[in-house]
Structures are given as C-alpha cells and as structure tokens.
Amino acid sequence: MNWVGLHGLLLLLLFNNGASQAIIKTLPGYSGTLPFKLETGYIGVGKNDEVQLFYYFIESENNPSTDPLLLWLTGGPGCSGLFGVVYDIGPCTFDVENFDGSLPSIILNPYSWTKAANIIFIDAPVGTGFSYANTSQGYSSSDIKSAKDIFTFLRKWLLNHPMFIKNRLYIAGESYGGKLVPMVAMEILRGNEARLQPQMSFQGYIIGNGLTDSNIDFNARIPYAHHMALISDEYFELAKSSCAGKYYNRDPNNIHCADALQQIRKCLSHINQVQILDPICGNRASKLEDFGWDQTFSKGYSIDHLVLPTAEQECHNQDSAISDDWANDPIVQEALSIRKGTITRWQTCNDGISYEQNVESALPYHKILIKKGYHVLVFNGDHDMAAPYLGPLKWIRILNLTIDDDWRPWLVNGQVAGYTEKYKKNDFELTFATVKGAGHTASRYKPKECLAMVHRWLSRSPL
Description:
This is Carboxypeptidase. One of its GO terms (molecular function) is acyltransferase activity, transferring groups other than amino-acyl groups. It is a single chain. By secondary structure, this protein is of the alpha/beta class. The protein folds into 2 domains: 313 residues, Rossmann fold; 79 residues, no CATH class. Helix content is 31%, strand content 21%. It contains 15 helices and 16 strands. Strands 1, 2, 3, 4, 7, 8, 10, 11, 13, 14, 15 and 16 form a 12-stranded mixed sheet that branches. β15 and β16 form a beta hairpin. It is globular, with a radius of gyration of 22 Å. The N and C termini lie far apart (46 Å). The N terminus is likely disordered.
C-alpha cells in the first residue's frame, strides 16, 4: 500500500468512531424493493463524538460515480432531513390522498433531485429528527457550532465513502438552512486551504427560499405584500413613511409605525404566509408569531416552523402529522436502523431544541466566498410571503456583482416557469431564479419545474 492509501486508511480509522451505516432495501408502506439506493447511518461529531448526527443518503438514479454530491440542509432550525426526502426533493413521498389513519403508503416522486445528483439529507442540528447526544451538554447548539458540526460530519462521511470524494460537491439548503449553507461552505474553504483531508471537490452552493439576513429578508415582507396586491397603496405608503422603511425589529416606541402596521396586520391575518394562494388550515387565521412575523407585529423571533399539524386535507401543512405517525412506528425505526432508546418521540420539526441563533446575517460569508470561483444558485417561490423573493434580490445587489444575463423568463415545456437573472464577479457566478406559482418551499409546489432548474444549473446550462 502506498503512502496516500495508508494515510487515507489511518484517517478513516481515526474518524470512524461513532459511525454506522446500513443499506435500506425496503420501507414499511412501500410494496417491494426500493427502486433507488438508500443508506442511513450515524456519524459522531463533537467532543468524544458525543453528538450523533443521523443521515439519509440516496444515490443518484442517473450515474452515481460522476453525478454531483449534494449535502441538503433542511430549515427550522430543527426540521428533519426526512422532510427533504418525502416532502421536498427526495425520491418518495406519502400517499396523502388515500391516507386512512393507518401506516401511510409510500409513492414515488418522478421529479426527485436524485435524478441528477447524489444527496445526503442530514438531521441537524443535534436534537433534530433521529440525531441525539450522549450527554445533556451535547444537546446545546448554535449557528456557529452547527456549521462546524456539519463540516465535521461531511469530512467523516466522505472518508467513509471515498468513492464520492472526487464528485463535484455542493452544499444546498432551504429556509433557515439557507443561512447555514454559506457558513458550511466557509468551513469547507478553510479546511481545503488548510490541506485537511479529504480535500473536497467543492464547487458551490444552492439556497432555496432561504434566510440570509433577517433584517433584509423579513423587512421584504411588507413591500412584497404590496407587490402582490394584498395591501393598498395608501397602507403601504403610510407604513413606509411612518416606519422609515424598517418594519422588522422596528423601534417599539414608534407609535405611528405600530398604528400603520396594525392596518396591514388586519389585511394579512387570513393569508397563508408560506403560499399566499393556499387556504388557511381549518379556516384559522395565520399565526402571526410564526416566521418571524412577531418582530414586525410585536414579539419573539422565529423563521420557520414550516409545518403546523392539522387534519385538514386541503392544507399542505397536515402532511407533518403523517410523517410523525410513520417515523414513530417501531417497525419503521427498525427498518431505518435507528438505535433504540436514543430519542423519545420523533418530530418532523422539533422547535424545542436548545439552539442559539448567534449569526444574524450570512452576508459576510457570501462576501468572502465571492472572491472564489464558486457557482451559486438562489431561488424563491414567487408566492412565498414568509421568505419573499425581494429579500435575495436586495442582498445580492449588496454584493456588488455585475449582471451577466438580464432578467428574463425561463421555460419548462414551452411555458414560463419563472424569471431569472445571472451575476458574475471574476470567476464567481450567481444565478437567481423565481419559481412561478410556488410557495415555501418551491420544489414542494412546483417539483417538475424545480428539477428542470437544478438539472440545467448543475449541468452548467442556462436556465
């Protein structure tokens, strides 16, 4: 064995503590053998591997040896990677239409991103999904710690899967995960520059309906509501002048601003924030404390809580109750090779994790990363009011990039699927795209269009 091979073996032995993996050929709820390769497992990070991060890995259904490798970060913080697998970009989903309260049936998603890439879906930060800690202290996390843990996870995963080290690597994420994407990218950049092994074939990153800077993204909601004819010109102009354009984290002593926003609150109280065309579940008014609305309309801070359990069939949100039932079934957990006794109750999104949101803006990370020759895709559903497309358009302009391809429609099957604009700075390239008619998250509402988008982008073709 040569030195390179011996060095790799030593690294693998060094990092392999706390790691386990299993190939899953069948799943409860699906009839027959899975038509895609699914692997699940744990990888230990942190002091003495006290944190055990669970993952789902699905090989590309095209050409695993040459297709890109994506690490997918779901939102929350605290939403499981299973959300990405069954509700977003993964190869299967639940048969919601025929769900009768028993173990839900699994059906295939013809528009899975695994048609174009190998994808790792991770339960992160610790306390999310099936991830757990061996100590009570291990359950504490934050933006900075989570980014470092995810980087360590990825290093160990690649050492355990050396056949994918040379594949083009992208970090991708949605919603709150959008903030962590450039932070993990920065960890990879630093690791590669420090010559840490393995050297990752990092090419760029993808952000969908993501949070980048709360002051920018959340502040975009009032202008977005005006753009979409949800509030009148008069209400918008009054709020704009009274609040000096600052609606999120505003001055609590500004009574005129509060009064102006109260009129807007009444207009938006029965609008579904994540997809303005969808009904409110059970005819309930929106919970305005969700998605950080509280910082505009009074208290608290939160970006996600993506799914609010309900039994109403007309609402996307009721799907989480199905995933909760499925993932808590002992037969399912055995099929997924879950370590017994490591969690009490699985939740699609665990809002009870111990997590400090200690990075308010990811813009400084983007500003450093644009000095490198990375490729970036930023996309938003244009009917998402929780993370409206106006936010990314503003922070992208702050990066002072040059427009390389002017705003234009992009098509799928001859129909407008959205609008796109491309920016460049030296070898750095950023593509922005809206997805017409999509909400939060875009691929959940427009799967065919989003697969076409990401397939073209990964192939370095124009949208």
